[in-house]
Amino acid sequence: MCGCGQQCWGWGNCAASPMLLLSLLLSTAPFALRGEDTRQVSLEVIPGWPDTPQNLLHVRAVGTNSTLHYVWGTLGPPAVVLVATNTPHSTLSVNWSHLLSPEPDGGLMVLPKDSIQFSSALIFTRLLEFDSTNVSDTAAKAPGKPYPPYSLAKFSWNNITDSLDPTTLTATFQGHPMNDATRAFVNGSLAFRVQAFSRSSRPAQSPRLLHTADTCQLEVTLVGASPRGNRSLFGLEVATLGRGPDCPLVQEQHSIDDEYAPAVFQLDQLLWGSLPTGFVQWRPVAYSQQQRGRESALPGHASPLHPTLAYSLPQSPIVRAFFGPQNNFCAFNVTFGTSTGPGYWDQHYLSWSMLVGVGSPPADALSPLVLGIMAVALGAPGLILLGGGLFLLLRHKRPLEYESIN
Ligand SMILES: *[C@@H]1O[C@H](CO)[C@@H](O)[C@H](O)[C@H]1NC(C)=O
Ligand SMILES: *[C@@H]1O[C@H](CO)[C@@H](O)[C@H](O)[C@H]1NC(C)=O
Ligand SMILES: *[C@@H]1O[C@H](CO)[C@@H](O)[C@H](O)[C@H]1NC(C)=O
Ligand SMILES: *[C@@H]1O[C@H](CO)[C@@H](O)[C@H](O)[C@H]1NC(C)=O
Ligand SMILES: *[C@@H]1O[C@H](CO)[C@@H](O)[C@H](O)[C@H]1NC(C)=O
Ligand SMILES: *[C@@H]1O[C@H](CO)[C@@H](O)[C@H](O)[C@H]1NC(C)=O
Ligand SMILES: *[C@@H]1O[C@H](CO)[C@@H](O)[C@H](O)[C@H]1NC(C)=O
């Protein structure tokens, strides 16, 4: 009769129907519970050779029937190789002499090979800087005139052993250009803070990405480096492996809920294949202060992911060691801020977070606050109707009683 089955799927159509809206809300609830899954997570610095800095971090996350391996390294540009296996017993094997050789193919392996269900990689190739002085706000998509980018393959990185914290499951790679001719990084550094999780939760700090035991969070922070202009915008170039001729899919998801990241209603994600495979997820926002809020939020903009010739990108030995020679790279740029908003120039601070994971990306349920507001919004008309009904009922009743008395 009402044809609801076909017409009510649009949000707009359904807003008028409390029952349908309620059932939609209830159907989102299982997502919030889904992360009960836990893993035994360990972080290990793979011992290197005596005079090479130890810069290979192995995150091993063991579940009942599977093991995830995240190998983060700054041999070459910062990169992560992620591998999912269908056994709780798979191991990582590293042959340093092989890995450090000009042909590292096979220097990094996950064994047994036939347990591998999924593998891919992310490479953080360049730190970008743009001069936004002449960019009007209307053309905000173009960050401005690019300065020569900093190749992250030409950075030197700290010994991560000192930063490894087994209780919080974190480790930080901190680096600066090897050859800092302009002395921009005399007091500055670029840090990649990696965090693993043994269960599903949400950090206290914005953008409060929902994580699961299947994910790692990466926080990239630029601190104290001297910008080359008064209105410098920064960004990162990120590369990944393509699948055949195609690039992974990038999706934008919109929500009416910004409780976890004020004024950000979007979640971007990169999917390596049809679900469940692997994903990268981030909110298009960076922060220009350690105190994260609306005032320090810089809008992020990601360029489309497109095929990129391998030779035009700084190469990662660890990616080559695991995957062998590859030609199908895809890359995108993510840039932060506008010439008029808050910016890196305020405090010489910029921080951006993302999640990388295996399986289906965590999906945000509506936050309790928004659910409360909706309940009140839906409840108020209901109360008014109920009140009105009672009033009519009573009004009809009185004359009757009056008559009967007469
Ligand atoms: C890194 O730090 C650890 C602990 O401080 C030390 O044992 C190790 O030798 C260091 N490695 C290098 C290459 O300096
Ligand atoms: C693990 O595998 C067994 C047998 O294949 C299956 O019965 C069980 O449900 C799996 N457990 C999980 C947590 O996936
Ligand atoms: C490591 O690789 C080298 C050659 O790259 C090889 O000679 C050596 O046997 C390998 N070591 C192990 C333990 O496999
Ligand atoms: C900005 O634009 C003005 C006028 O078009 C030009 O003279 C100036 O060189 C530009 N500055 C930069 C940094 O591009
Ligand atoms: C680096 O810090 C020192 C001490 O705080 C300061 O004197 C110097 O000017 C700074 N250099 C740059 C390039 O910011
Ligand atoms: C930066 O701003 C100062 C003061 O407003 C100005 O003197 C200087 O020329 C500007 N520098 C650049 C590179 O635009
Ligand atoms: C990222 O931006 C830089 C500077 O504008 C540019 O050279 C590079 O090609 C861009 N990379 C991608 C993948 O768009």
Automatic annotation (TrEMBL):
Q: Which UniProt keywords apply?
A: Glycoprotein, Lysosome, Membrane, Signal, Transmembrane, Transmembrane helix
> What transmembrane ranges does the database entry give?
369-394
Entry keyword annotation includes Transmembrane: yes
UniProt-listed InterPro entries: NCU-G1
Q: Name one GO cellular component term.
A: lysosomal membrane
Question: Which BP terms does GO give this entry?
Answer: positive regulation of transcription by RNA polymerase II; protein localization to lysosome; protein stabilization
Can you say where in the cell this protein is located?
Answer: Lysosome membrane
- Keyword Glycoprotein set for record: yes
Leader sequence segment: 1-34
**What does the record say about its membrane topology?**
Single-pass type I membrane protein
Superkingdom of the organism of origin: Eukaryota
How the protein assembles, per its UniProt entry?
Answer: Interacts (via lumenal domain) with lysosomal protein MFSD1; the interaction starts while both proteins are still in the endoplasmic reticulum and is required for stabilization of MFSD1 in lysosomes but has no direct effect on its targeting to lysosomes or transporter activity.
Q: Which PANTHER family match?
A: GLYCOSYLATED LYSOSOMAL MEMBRANE PROTEIN (PTHR31981:SF1)
Q: What is the purpose of this protein?
A: Required to protect lysosomal transporter MFSD1 from lysosomal proteolysis and for MFSD1 lysosomal localization.
Q: Which family does it belong to?
A: Belongs to the GLMP family.
The protein depicted here goes by the name Glycosylated lysosomal membrane protein
**Origin species:** Otolemur garnettii
**Gene name of this polypeptide:** GLMP
